[in-house]
Amino acid sequence: MTARAAGSAPDHRLQRLALGSILLGLVVLALKFAAWKLTGSVALYSDALESIINVVTAIAAYAAIRVSALPADAGHPYGHSKAEYFSAVVEGALILLAALAILREAYHGLLNPRPLDAPLAGLLVSGLASALNMAWGLMLIRRGRRARSPALEADGHHLMSDVYTSAGVMLGVAVVALSGWAWLDSALAGLVALHILWTGWTLMRDSLGGLMDAALPAADLDRLVALIEAEKGEDARVLGLRTRLAGRLSFIDFTLQVPAQLTVAEAHARCDRIEEALLRALGEASINIHLEPLPN
């Protein structure tokens, strides 16, 4: 027996959010390059470079969400939901590249420190860009977790890493402006880049787990076991429970052993109750239940 919940409306909402990320990324990119032009800060220039990656990854997330929403077909009978993991891996890799680019600029800045121009104006413009990124990034993480969208959640984490970068950069610019220590501009940018390296690696590690058919998280698995136990009946037994997660779609299969004297209709009704409970809990799932008689 199989069951699956379709969710076209949530897919459209996710696509609109991903498209919004592209538009926001372009606005933030323009603001950060303006901040760099105003100040000449190496750190603000590095921050602007990272924003280019934001736009690229937002486009990748949008494409992945569109592909993952496609229905199953003859060539992809289990659907296209794993496409989001590819996007998350790409985003993680691009975050790593952005961090390396920032480290490179920080190194050159340390070798050739220079005073800043119009630091206050640059800080105000960069602060506005960071505020936009923070609001949108937190919203993407919250919506991505709720909809179980790896691509959307990864995009939100990427934006938050940009917020941390910008916070370190703005702190460096403010200290340089007040103290005259030009070398500190690049030094703080380098420290924040190390944090971004860790964020990128975490995203890649989690996404690779999805591509390798990792099981549902332990907390979700315990909840599913409790639901199955509550609906299967005291005279039935569950064997061989297996789960895997592919984007927003959970795959669950197990064997349900029931008393041999049950009719087909009665056994089917038990499976229906289990499936309905699991679908209410998960939202979207592909469930396979293999029926067997209890051994004598």
Automatic annotation (TrEMBL):
<dbReference type="InterPro" id="IPR027469">
    <property type="entry name" value="Cation_efflux_TMD_sf"/>
</dbReference>
<dbReference type="GO" id="GO:0015093">
    <property type="term" value="F:ferrous iron transmembrane transporter activity"/>
</dbReference>
<dbReference type="GO" id="GO:0015341">
    <property type="term" value="F:zinc efflux antiporter activity"/>
</dbReference>
<keyword id="KW-0410">Iron transport</keyword>
<keyword id="KW-1133">Transmembrane helix</keyword>
<keyword id="KW-0862">Zinc</keyword>
<keyword id="KW-0812">Transmembrane</keyword>
<comment type="similarity">
    <text>Belongs to the cation diffusion facilitator (CDF) transporter (TC 2.A.4) family. FieF subfamily.</text>
</comment>
<dbReference type="Pfam" id="PF16916">
    <property type="entry name" value="ZT_dimer"/>
</dbReference>
<dbReference type="GO" id="GO:0015086">
    <property type="term" value="F:cadmium ion transmembrane transporter activity"/>
</dbReference>
<dbReference type="InterPro" id="IPR027470">
    <property type="entry name" value="Cation_efflux_CTD"/>
</dbReference>
<feature type="transmembrane region" description="Helical">
    <location>
        <begin position="162"/>
        <end position="181"/>
    </location>
</feature>
<feature type="transmembrane region" description="Helical">
    <location>
        <begin position="17"/>
        <end position="36"/>
    </location>
</feature>
<dbReference type="InterPro" id="IPR002524">
    <property type="entry name" value="Cation_efflux"/>
</dbReference>
<feature type="domain" description="Cation efflux protein cytoplasmic">
    <location>
        <begin position="218"/>
        <end position="293"/>
    </location>
</feature>
<protein>
    <submittedName>
        <fullName>Cation transporter</fullName>
    </submittedName>
</protein>
<dbReference type="GO" id="GO:0005886">
    <property type="term" value="C:plasma membrane"/>
</dbReference>
<feature type="domain" description="Cation efflux protein transmembrane">
    <location>
        <begin position="21"/>
        <end position="212"/>
    </location>
</feature>
<keyword id="KW-0406">Ion transport</keyword>
<keyword id="KW-0813">Transport</keyword>
<feature type="transmembrane region" description="Helical">
    <location>
        <begin position="42"/>
        <end position="65"/>
    </location>
</feature>
<dbReference type="InterPro" id="IPR050291">
    <property type="entry name" value="CDF_Transporter"/>
</dbReference>
<dbReference type="GO" id="GO:0006882">
    <property type="term" value="P:intracellular zinc ion homeostasis"/>
</dbReference>
<dbReference type="Pfam" id="PF01545">
    <property type="entry name" value="Cation_efflux"/>
</dbReference>
<keyword id="KW-0408">Iron</keyword>
<keyword id="KW-0864">Zinc transport</keyword>
<feature type="transmembrane region" description="Helical">
    <location>
        <begin position="123"/>
        <end position="141"/>
    </location>
</feature>
<feature type="transmembrane region" description="Helical">
    <location>
        <begin position="85"/>
        <end position="103"/>
    </location>
</feature>
<dbReference type="InterPro" id="IPR036837">
    <property type="entry name" value="Cation_efflux_CTD_sf"/>
</dbReference>
<keyword id="KW-0472">Membrane</keyword>
<dbReference type="InterPro" id="IPR058533">
    <property type="entry name" value="Cation_efflux_TM"/>
</dbReference>
